[in-house]
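Progress narrative, work stream C.
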Amino acid sequence: MIKYIINILVLSIVLYNPLWCKNTKSKIAEEGNTTRKVHIEYSINVMTESMSNISGGIKKGTAYNGLVQSGMDISIGSSLFRGSFLLLSGDNPSDLIGDGLGASNMHGYNSLRLYEIWYERRLLHDKLNVRIGSLLADAEFSVNDLGGLFINSAFGWPAYISGNTVNTGPAFFVTAPGVRIRYTIDDQSNLQAGIYDGDPFDNLEGDGKITAHGNHWKISKGQGIFSIGEYGRKFKKSDGGNVKLGFWNYSNWNTEGYYPKNITGLYFSSEVFMSSLLQYKIFGVFFRAGVSISNHEDFYSSTVDGGFLFNNLFPFLKNDVLGFGLAFGKIAGGRHYYLPENDQYIPMDYEMAIESSLRFQIYPWLEAQPDIQFIFHPGGGSIVEDATVTSIRFIISD
């Protein structure tokens, strides 16, 4: 397993070369009688992770993962082009833990793959923004920035969406063809909506080989569509936080297929940034909740996640962030484990993860993040023993 870490670190040294990996550059483009500024921005981020199940779960053990994400943004006037790649390598820690929420948010199908590729246009004096291409919904909808500290997937693309739609929907690590429209109402509020291919994997079973390189796009009636809409409002204070209300839906009109027919959910989220607390350390709180209003095709009937963060608590660390979070998913009624040896059905009830994570800076380009998670009812029931999971992650960024 160590070979995954070595391969990722060697590649990161090659990619992270200051001679040709400048952060940004600009030039002036002459077009007829007009002059427009072209702004090009590069980004390379590298993460390595060692995650160990030290008690409970399916079995004890350690999984190693590596990820490299490289992207380029080209801005020309009111237009923006984005293209990016992912390199994923490693094993799934959930194979050791047996959890459903996803203890690691960086594991994916081992591959070098095309990731985001889209075109964005600003209209109506920048009040209207339209993006079209191969997109990620989890980058723009139901996002709590404070939750981004945590390693468990439930704090990212929430389980009230990922666990209830087909193959998690358009989210890490597979994009989907779609269009997103955002309208800025005023300085504090906006509306946005997106429509995407209903199955990013183009395979109901989630076979990663089909989309192994990120260049397989299939839109069909049989796969259905995934749609999402959201109203967001910032608090009056510029850094005070926000509140968001949204809905999502998966619809399929192919009566002869095996895909779900219709699943709908609602969600609420908010995060608050506060200062002048705890010896003037910045303090942040976040909360999200979502419910399914479908009859029988959902997996989670409701989920919540939330937590709080402290910045610069430790004088011996640089730019440290300490967070405590909790994620809870209630399994929809009627779902059971089947034990063939006893010919017995065991009802599923919930899964919960409690996480504590600390990120700090070692060098301007290198961060470390030790983390511990306590996972209760892995997989949604009492069949698998509660697990304790520790991990260490290193982040290289430009």
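Work stream C, second folded protein:
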Amino acid sequence: MKIEVDTHTHTCCSTHAFGTICENAAAAAKCGLRMLCMTDHTPALPDAPHLWHFKTLSRLPREIEGVKILFGAEANLLDTEGNIDLPSEIQNGLDVIVASIHIPVYMRQTSAEHTKTYLGALKNPNITILGHTGDYRFPYNIDEVTAAAAKYHKCIEINNNSCKNPKNADNYREIIAACKRNGTLVAVSSDAHTPFEIGCFDAAVNLLEEADFPPAQIANLTVERFEEFLNGIK
């Protein structure tokens, strides 16, 4: 399975990551990606860039090393209402928003509360993808959330970095099965924090192939399909 778009990557603007956007784009070109989403962390996390980072992304070129660049963020889910830690005017200006639960911004609650949080996020028109929902620390009603993602035309992320954790693998198997059953789109991502991880999807792809997951439901399989998906949200 050849995936052309990496939907979730970090640069050293998130200071626990190690690559510049130029280094990430060069790595993307080397491994055959055609599109790269730059999705650094948002300000509620201690080492995230300032809001000005997201306001000035437009100064970057839209193509680096022959790879198309999308401007985005990995935002923090704050509550059950779909609120994230970016002002609406910045949300409106981004191409992609991956919305995730992160400690210490969001502390562990009940499965019912985690479910409400994800359902609220899916109703936010600016959120594109629910990030690393296979995290074993935050159980939720997988069937209900994946069905809602299909309803609202949003993606559930199959996060390679998260899939590599054995504690999460069974959750991802259940998520993939539910997405297949409910006709939900998925986005396969590296969640790269170094240039060496850009375009690394092996663990995620192995789980998808194990489940005989339909390629037609992988939103970022090709650039054209991902652009069509994004246009369907706007």
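The chain has a mean pLDDT of 97. No further action is required on this item.
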